[in-house]
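User: My instructor asked us to take a sequence, write out its structure as tokens, and then describe one feature of it. I'm not sure where to start. Here is the sequence I was given:
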Amino acid sequence: MRQANIDANIVKKMLKEALAEALHEERELFHELFLEVLEDFALGEAIREGLETGRTTRDRVFSVLEGQS
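Assistant: Let's start with the prediction itself. The structure tokens for your sequence are:
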């Protein structure tokens, strides 16, 4: 099997162009993906914070979720 000698700078440039094109053409897909990542990060942070605080009741949780602090 033959190996092609490709300049690293050319590969880097081609990869950048491909990524820019994908971002432009699939903007909504990347937007949704980014939102999912942010939600996952926020959930992880909430879990870590919850592990450091005391326990609460189910009623208190639902009260907060329903906006009745």
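For the description part of your assignment, you could build on this observation: The CA atoms of residues 10 and 64 lie 55 Å apart. Try explaining in your own words what that tells you about the chain.
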